[in-house]
Every structure is written in structure tokens, then in C-alpha cells.
Amino acid sequence: MKLDAPQITLKITPPSLTMAISAPEAEVNTITITPPGVSEVSTITVNKPAAPSVTPPSPTVNPIVFSIPNLKPYGNNQYQSRNQNKKI
């Protein structure tokens, strides 16, 4: 009789991972954009301005006519001319 150790076979299998990703269904609201009406554009012409001209005034000088009146003496010299009244 032959006695051997029993043969035990053990099969270990890891669990399998199953994953599913699904995107949510998005609702899209369509927007209608109506551009405003555009009128036709006309061309613009720009002309260079003429050179400025300056006419200086012609001033006139009016002569000044004045005279010194003959004054009577005053102050300490009553009967002498104005040029002699110096020590007042």
C-alpha cells in the first residue's frame, strides 16, 4: 500500500472588473441670430485744405499833439516862472 499526500488543486481567479461610461444626453436649444440690415456704404472723398493766408493789418499811428500850459508860479516863489520854483 502506498500512502501519498493528497493532491489538492486550488484555482484562484481574480474578480473581473467591468466598467461602462456613458455620456448624458444633452439637450441643445438652437438659437437663431438674425443680423441687422446694413445699408450700402458710399465712398467718402477728402480734399486737402488750401494753405492758410494771413493778411496783417496795416496800423496807422496818429500823432499826439500836446502843449504845456504856462502856469503861474506857486509855493514859495509867487512871481517867478515854473523853472525857478525848486525849493518847495
Explain what you see.
By secondary structure, the chain is mostly loops. 0% of the residues lie in helices and 0% in strands. The model has no long low-confidence stretch (mean pLDDT 79).
Short overview:
The protein has no helix or strand.
What descriptors fit this protein?
88 residues, little secondary structure
How many DSSP helices? 0
| Beta fraction | under 5%
Please state the average pLDDT score: 79
- Summing up helix and strand content along with how strands pair, one would put the structural category as little secondary structure
Number of strands: 0
Helix content: under 10%
Radius of gyration using CA atoms only: 62 Å
User: Distance between termini?
Assistant: 174 Å
- Give the CA-based shape: rod-shaped
Major beta-sheet overview? none
List segments where confidence is low: pLDDT < 50 over at least 5 consecutive residues: none
Secondary structure layout:
Elements: no helix or strand
